[in-house]
Amino acid sequence: MVDARYRNRLTGLKHPRGEDARDLRVGSWVVRVVGLDRPLGQALDERWGPFVGPVEGASATLVLEVVDAGRECWLPGPDAPGERYRMEASGDADARVIVSYNFALGRAIAGEGGWSLAITRDTWEPTERLLENVARYLLAVLALDNGGFAMHSAGVLYDGRAYLYAGPSRSGKSTAVSRSLPAQSLGDDFGLVIPGGKNWWTPAVPFDGSERISAGAPRGLYPVGAIWRLYQSPEIALDHPPVQVASASLLSCVAFPWAYPERAGELLDHVAQFVEESSFGHLRFAVDSKLYSEVLERQGAGS
What we know:
Layout: H1 5-11, E1 20-26, E2 29-36, H2 38-48, E3 52-53, E4 62-68, E5 88-90, E6 97-99, E7 103-107, E8 114-119, H3 127-145, E9 149-151, E10 153-158, E11 161-166, H4 173-178, E12 184-185, E13 191-196, E14 199-203, E15 221-232, E16 237-239, H5 243-251, H6 264-277, E17 280-285, H7 291-302
Parallel strand pairs: 2-4, 4-8, 11-15, 15-17
Antiparallel strand pairs: 1-2, 1-3, 5-6, 6-7, 7-8, 9-13, 10-11, 10-12, 13-14, 14-15, 16-17
Helix pairs in contact: 5-6
C-alpha cells in the first residue's frame, strides 16, 4: 500500500532553506544544489573540498532544491542506541519519496529533471552529513541511468587505473585503502561504476571517513582495473569465481537496491555485464597485509 502522506507534504513545501548554491562535480556529472543556507554551503565546501564550488555555467546533470520542512520530523527518532542513519522508500516509481528522520527527497517536484529535498529545522544529525547521504543516492540513480551501478566500496588509484574494494560494513574497505598506500584513495566507502567505450570507469568521489577531502585529492574518471570483494583472512589470496557466482557476489555489494525495486532487472543486467567484460575477484587479506606490494603491483605486472 502506497503511503501518500510524504509525497503530499513534500509537494506543499515551497520555501528554500537559503539563497546559496553549489555545484558538486563527480566525474562528468554536475549535481547543482540550490536553496542552501550559508552555514550549510560553507560546511559542504569544507567537507567535499575540490569537488564542490560555486555554480558555473547554465547546464547541470540534475538540480537539487533544498527547502525548509519546518520543525516536524519525517520519521520517528531512532529507537536502537547504535542506529545513526535510516532511509526508506515510499510510493511507486512515479511518486517515490525517500525519507529519513530529518529529510524527505522526491523527484520532479522542483521542476522537470529536478529533485526536492526538504530538511527539518534543528536536526540532531549534522546537516552536511545528511545532504551527503542524499548525494550518494542521487549519484547511484545517475549510475543506473547510465548503464552502471553504485556500490559499498573503496577505491584506490594505481598506475592510472582504479581498483575497487567492495563489501558491506566492517569488511575492511577503509583498512584495505590504508594498506594500499602510496596508491591514492578515490573514496573509502562508496563507489560508482559506469560503462564507456571499451572500458568500465569509476569517478573519484568526495566521500571519505575523514570527513574532509584534501585539496590534492584525485578527481575525474578512471578506467577500472578490477573490483575485488573483500574477505578478511589470515593470508592473502585472490581468486576469480565463476560468472554466476561473481554476479551474485557483486550484486550483494550494490548500494540502495531497495530504493528502485522496479529496476532490479536493469541493475542485475549491469552487474552481470561488468562481470563478463571486466575483472572481478574475491580478495582475502589480513588487516596487516601490504596490499600495494602484494596485490596491486602483482596485478599491474600481469596486465
